[in-house]
């Protein structure tokens, strides 16, 4: 059995709502620290200090439990968003002991097929559905699936902590990562071509990132490479934690992964925004869309138009989109939604 097949079949199936523990976090995740930008420098912040400030918007409504909820929820999707979904489970189980949640996670996109075939109530996704996935669903059911944004995220650019690069533009990222640069974009293969000098001048750049089956790969390809092809030298890894570890061990490296995986062994590189200023992927810069490489994490459901989503799955999503659910998301290291985006999700469930 190939390693990829092992990853596909090594799904995390956990009756979370029946009492087993929430999905385990790796040692790398336990050392994760968010970043802030001070006078143009990206600095690590102690996790305790950062979490103490992660208070979600008071404009988000508090959750109001319902009476007598019982049943089963099946969630099948990508591991990035599934981990987030599973972290909500402990509090949801406390409120609703009669509801069980079965979670299956994979590093590749298994959710759309499971939703299409009726095997999943929730399909967590780290990217929007493709036009092909929407068309296949619409052909079968006569209406498109409903995509609910449940958290914000950013694709951070990581370098080894000793790398002095102060900032990069999207054009420079295209020159670094793409083998098919657009007109006006120059290829960048050594760090002097990215503006570094002295002992960095002739050091070759090594690339780390996700494989083509991962949503982060697809989003980075569209947003940073303008749809161009990645260099064949990209060192592919299925997990953000492993990508960051690889960058940390390689002085010439640059890689992309969720900001969730930031740690003390790497530096996060500020990127030029639409106004030409450089922005670190802080929560404020992500919510304000100043940092250019942002994305959302989604949960997709099968909801006929004009019919509110019902049952335990609907209540679970309402809790996730409430102030209480978003606070759990923020406490776990993900970036909570602003009030307007959460309201859009609640309306989508009700209409």
How would you characterize this protein structure?
- This protein has 2 domains: 3-29 and 46-152 and 297-350, Periplasmic binding protein-like II (D-Maltodextrin-Binding Protein, domain 2), CATH 3.40.190; 154-294, 3-Layer(aba) Sandwich (D-Maltodextrin-Binding Protein, domain 2), CATH 3.40.190.10.
- Helix content is 32%, strand content 20%.
- It contains 14 helices and 14 strands.
- The protein is an alpha+beta fold and 351 residues long.
- Mean pLDDT is 85; it is low at 1-53.
- It has helices at 3-9, 27-30, 47-52, 79-87, 89-95, 111-116, 131-141, 170-177, 215-223, 240-248, 283-287, 311-320, 323-331, 339-350; strands at 14-15, 35-38, 41-44, 71-78, 99-106, 123-125, 146-160, 206-209, 235-236, 253-258, 266-268, 271-272, 278-279, 294-301.
- The strands form 4 sheets. Strands 6, 7, 8, 9, 10, 11 and 14 form a 7-stranded mixed β-sheet that branches.
Keywords for this entry:
351 residues, alpha+beta, D-Maltodextrin-Binding Protein, domain 2, 2 domains, 7-stranded mixed sheet, 3-stranded mixed sheet, 14 strands, disordered N terminus
């Amino acid at each position: 059995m190939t390693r990829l097949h092992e990853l596909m079949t090594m799904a995390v199936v956990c009756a979370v709502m029946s009492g087993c523990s929430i999905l385990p976090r790796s040692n790398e995740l336990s050392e994760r620290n968010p970043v802030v930008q001070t006078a143009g420098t990206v600095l690590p912040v102690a996790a305790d200090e950062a979490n103490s400030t992660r208070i979600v918007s008071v404009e988000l409504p508090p959750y109001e439990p319902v009476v007598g909820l019982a049943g089963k929820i099946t969630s099948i999707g990508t591991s990035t968003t599934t981990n987030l979904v599973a972290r909500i489970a402990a509090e949801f189980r406390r409120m609703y002991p009669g509801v069980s949640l079965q979670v299956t996670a994979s590093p590749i996109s298994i959710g759309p097929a499971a939703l299409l075939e009726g095997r999943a109530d929730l399909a967590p996704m780290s990217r929007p559905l493709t036009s092909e996935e929407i068309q296949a669903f619409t052909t079968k059911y006569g209406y498109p699936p409903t995509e609910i944004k449940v958290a914000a995220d950013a694709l951070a650019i990581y370098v080894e902590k000793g790398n002095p690069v102060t900032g990069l533009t999207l054009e420079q990222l295209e020159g670094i990562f793409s083998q098919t640069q657009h007109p006006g974009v120059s290829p960048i293969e050594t760090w002097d071509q990215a503006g570094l000098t002295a002992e960095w001048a002739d050091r070759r750049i090594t690339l780390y990132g996700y494989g083509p089956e991962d949503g982060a790969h697809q989003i980075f390809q569209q947003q940073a490479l303008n749809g161009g092809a990645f260099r064949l030298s990209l060192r592919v890894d299925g997990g953000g934690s492993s990508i960051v570890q690889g960058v940390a061990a390689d002085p010439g490296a640059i890689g992309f992964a969720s900001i969730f995986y930031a740690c003390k062994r790497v530096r996060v590189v500020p990127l030029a925004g639409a106004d030409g200023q450089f922005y670190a992927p802080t929560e404020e810069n992500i919510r304000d869309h100043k940092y250019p490489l942002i994305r959302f994490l989604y949960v997709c459901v099968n909801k006929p138009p004009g019919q509110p989503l019902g049952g335990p799955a609907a209540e679970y999503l309402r809790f996730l989109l409430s102030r209480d659910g978003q606070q759990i998301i923020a406490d776990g290291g993900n970036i909570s939604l602003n009030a307007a985006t959460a309201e859009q999700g609640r309306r989508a469930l009700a209409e």
